[in-house]
Amino acid sequence: MGSLLIAVIYLIFISLGLPDSLLGSGWPQMQLTFGIPSSYAGYVAMTISLMTIVSALASPKLITKLHTKWIVIISIALTICGLMGFSISGSYYMLFLFAIPYGLGAGSIDASVNHYVASNYSSSVMNFLHCFYGVGAVISPNIMALALMHAHWNEGYRWTAYIQIGILLVCILALPLWKRNENEQAAQQTQNSSLIDALKIPGVVLTLIAFCAYCGSEVTCGLWTSSYFAGTKEAISDELVAAFGSLIFGGLMLGRLISGFISERFGDRNMIRMGVVVELIGLLLIVLPTEGYIIAAIGFAVLGTGMGPIYPAITHMAPANFGVANSSAVIGLQMAAAYVGSTFMPMLFGNLQQIIGIGCLPGVILMVTIINIVFLEMTYRKIRF
């Protein structure tokens, strides 16, 4: 039963990744369809993220009232509504309407499942699970590339929604598997602290700033990688440009797969430090003045590999750093901070690249990476262990 539940959670993490890279990979064609500037992708991404912040902040309350399994069912259903809505959108402004369920479907499931895994499983399991997030995020740009090759970008969203429907049916059938840990979760629910109390814990605010910076850089890369190649490289087909949207997510998947094997040995903090070093190597490859796109493509994959261990490590440390009783509130805040970064950084970068060009992407990611590691190191000093 326990192994089957882990398998279902793997599937849930694939579900989490599927919607996240569609907008970036499809946007070069979507903007042509709607006849709007490329920077307008940031506003759609901002709306999705704002809804996700609302959902993430509600997660501690939802965890106390609902079991994780029901949060999963409701959230996937909302995501399906958002994906199907995007697939039928005939104008740019219709995207904002369907961005509401699209975003609401992400926050609570992210916070609740991460809290469940951090409370019940090892760092190694957390990394492997987040690797499967990368699987979902890699699959969807290639679905979009296939749709652009044989149909239209709308079909990319529709086909992804069909996969989500299949995952939802599996999760419904798997509801009895969650009974094993229901008593443990009920005991934890009675001890959970509030969001306000969690903010007062030493080091929490510093962690939130670091997490905000990291997730902002991850989503910005996911959203603008395809546009980076379209704007800085020549003679690349639309299908290949869309497929390049999976480079960061492929790297994330690889980084988390590797971390799953070594995180127990090195620990969460050292995994983050090693990840940042790999990120810097990836950024160096991207900016090398070479002909063609191969070295830059490798650089984005390496960048994603370095990013891989950071998200699961920060989340997995929450119970150990701030206490089990505070972990659901802290992780809920972390998810909200993550989506604050995901909301505003892509929008700000979209306007920045409109002014100075898409080629500034590596420099912006470098600055945000420095903010991430500096504030995490300040957190470790604050909590003093």
Describe this structure in words.
With 385 residues, the protein is mainly α. The chain has a single domain (2-383), classed as Up-down Bundle (Growth Hormone, Chain: A). Helix content is 84%, strand content 0%. It is built from 16 helices and no strands. It has helices at 2-17, 22-34, 41-65, 68-87, 94-120, 123-150, 153-173, 182-189, 195-199, 204-232, 238-243, 247-287, 294-307, 310-322, 324-356, 361-383. Helix 1 crosses helix 6 and helix 12 packs across helix 16. The longest helix has 41 residues, at 247-287. The radius of gyration is 19 Å and the shape is globular. The model has no long low-confidence stretch (mean pLDDT 85).
Produce the secondary structure layout.
Layout: H1 2-17, H2 22-34, H3 41-65, H4 68-87, H5 94-120, H6 123-150, H7 153-173, H8 182-189, H9 195-199, H10 204-232, H11 238-243, H12 247-287, H13 294-307, H14 310-322, H15 324-356, H16 361-383
